[in-house]
Amino acid sequence: MSATKEATKRPPYGIIAILLAGAFVSILNSTLLNVALPSMMEDLKVKETTIQWLATGYMLVNGILIPTTAFLIQKFSVRRLFIAAMLFFTVGTVTASLADSFTLLLIARMIQAAGSAVMMPLLMNVLLTSFPIEKRGGAMGILGLVMIFAPAIGPTLSGWIIEHYNWRTLFYMIIPFALIVLILAFFKLKDKKDKVDIKIDILSVILSSIGFGGILYGCSTAGSKGWSSPEVYITLIAGVLGLFLLILRQFRLEKPMLDFRVYKYPMFALASAISIVVNMAMFSAMILMPIYLQQIRGISPMHSGLLMLPGAIIMGIMSPITGKLFDKYGAKILALIGLAITVGTTYSFSQLSDSTSYSTLIVMYSLRMFGMSMVMMPVMTNGLNQLPQRLNPHGTAMNSTLSQVSGAIGTGLLVTVMSSRTKHHIEDMVAEATSKMAHMTQQPTQEAIAKMQEHLIMEGTIKGINDSFFVSVLIAAVAFILAFFLKRVTQGQKQES
């Protein structure tokens, strides 16, 4: 008991700083590659469907390993777990920088993912156990800065590097930072953990891999192959079945790998629901904006990234401020204000045209990020605050897993909406144009027809993107309604049965 009080009085800032640095490097790395995929595809001589596995494979390993982090956090000390994670990540990064084939590069990315999967749940658990409830908002705000700022600067930085250097530079750049964090962790992390008599349930790992892996893969490939593809719906059915069996298995185990009893706590359950919905809505800008900017407007990858940078800076500045406001006022008022801004700005994105100015897009995106900064971390922290300490590892693992799953569902859904609505709009406009040409006395030249077709495709794509953003408005509106039910809680407020 005295050790817990001591930890509460003096949070281990050194440990937290090292963990934050590792998480930042890991998250930054995961976002650097998207802009580089076309040049990697050309250099490694592989097709678009093949190169996408660098992102899909990374996501799948994360989705399979994150549910096991609750067990790992209970079994091993922070020192051993973090050093092992950083070692995997560093070895993967070095291997990727030297890879001369796609197969070796994919293996390297999956080794990286094995390390990065552990970092965020581990860091979140350390923060929860190091700070009392009344100070957690500020601490989680710093974590939010890392979670938000790293992926936001990734595309800008990656775009600039790809324009001036080889894609391998993306990995060369990460190596020294990863090594510094690894060395600091080796010499500075000193925490000890009593031997814990806990064994992992192999069947739970298998069911978790099938469940979360199947859902992640099915949703992430639905955008390109369509929901009617056997590859999509068979993996989704397998995933749902695997997840159902996993939940049944966990309730029968005395010491479950991933304890679904966290959902007995209503504010944690509500926080999960809001986070899933907001995550799905958030992915609309991350996926649709690059398509609109680069393919429709012809804006370079670097300038596309620069457009998103002010929003990232605002979110980075706001994250610790939001944390302090959460400690003072709670999650409800912040979430309602943030979601109202998110719904309004997302609606403005559903009104895009081929002449929307660059400055207007920056303002709209920055306002949207400002709104988002007031939602995710306060809602998540409020939910975790209700859990008793023994369930913290399970809560953090559940949140990280659901973040991956909801992101994949959001991606699949929004890309599908965009694709189907684009096709519908183009067909309608082509039929209308054909009807008009049939009544013309002088038929247009082939060159005029080609230009008209190009214009119709562009207009149809913009309308498809707008429709997809409008679906995001409806999704964000659901989160806004759910936020009215948020209540401020104390730890373990609901009695365990």
Automatic annotation (TrEMBL):
<dbReference type="InterPro" id="IPR011701">
    <property type="entry name" value="MFS"/>
</dbReference>
<dbReference type="InterPro" id="IPR020846">
    <property type="entry name" value="MFS_dom"/>
</dbReference>
<feature type="transmembrane region" description="Helical">
    <location>
        <begin position="199"/>
        <end position="218"/>
    </location>
</feature>
<feature type="transmembrane region" description="Helical">
    <location>
        <begin position="268"/>
        <end position="293"/>
    </location>
</feature>
<keyword id="KW-1133">Transmembrane helix</keyword>
<dbReference type="InterPro" id="IPR004638">
    <property type="entry name" value="EmrB-like"/>
</dbReference>
<feature type="transmembrane region" description="Helical">
    <location>
        <begin position="12"/>
        <end position="33"/>
    </location>
</feature>
<feature type="transmembrane region" description="Helical">
    <location>
        <begin position="80"/>
        <end position="99"/>
    </location>
</feature>
<feature type="transmembrane region" description="Helical">
    <location>
        <begin position="468"/>
        <end position="486"/>
    </location>
</feature>
<keyword id="KW-0472">Membrane</keyword>
<feature type="transmembrane region" description="Helical">
    <location>
        <begin position="401"/>
        <end position="419"/>
    </location>
</feature>
<feature type="domain" description="Major facilitator superfamily (MFS) profile">
    <location>
        <begin position="15"/>
        <end position="491"/>
    </location>
</feature>
<dbReference type="Pfam" id="PF07690">
    <property type="entry name" value="MFS_1"/>
</dbReference>
<feature type="transmembrane region" description="Helical">
    <location>
        <begin position="333"/>
        <end position="350"/>
    </location>
</feature>
<feature type="transmembrane region" description="Helical">
    <location>
        <begin position="230"/>
        <end position="248"/>
    </location>
</feature>
<protein>
    <submittedName>
        <fullName>MFS transporter</fullName>
    </submittedName>
</protein>
<dbReference type="GO" id="GO:0005886">
    <property type="term" value="C:plasma membrane"/>
</dbReference>
<keyword id="KW-0812">Transmembrane</keyword>
<dbReference type="GO" id="GO:0022857">
    <property type="term" value="F:transmembrane transporter activity"/>
</dbReference>
<feature type="transmembrane region" description="Helical">
    <location>
        <begin position="105"/>
        <end position="128"/>
    </location>
</feature>
<dbReference type="InterPro" id="IPR036259">
    <property type="entry name" value="MFS_trans_sf"/>
</dbReference>
<feature type="transmembrane region" description="Helical">
    <location>
        <begin position="140"/>
        <end position="161"/>
    </location>
</feature>
<keyword id="KW-0813">Transport</keyword>
<feature type="transmembrane region" description="Helical">
    <location>
        <begin position="362"/>
        <end position="380"/>
    </location>
</feature>
<feature type="transmembrane region" description="Helical">
    <location>
        <begin position="305"/>
        <end position="326"/>
    </location>
</feature>
<keyword id="KW-1003">Cell membrane</keyword>
<feature type="transmembrane region" description="Helical">
    <location>
        <begin position="167"/>
        <end position="187"/>
    </location>
</feature>
<comment type="similarity">
    <text>Belongs to the major facilitator superfamily. EmrB family.</text>
</comment>
<feature type="transmembrane region" description="Helical">
    <location>
        <begin position="53"/>
        <end position="73"/>
    </location>
</feature>
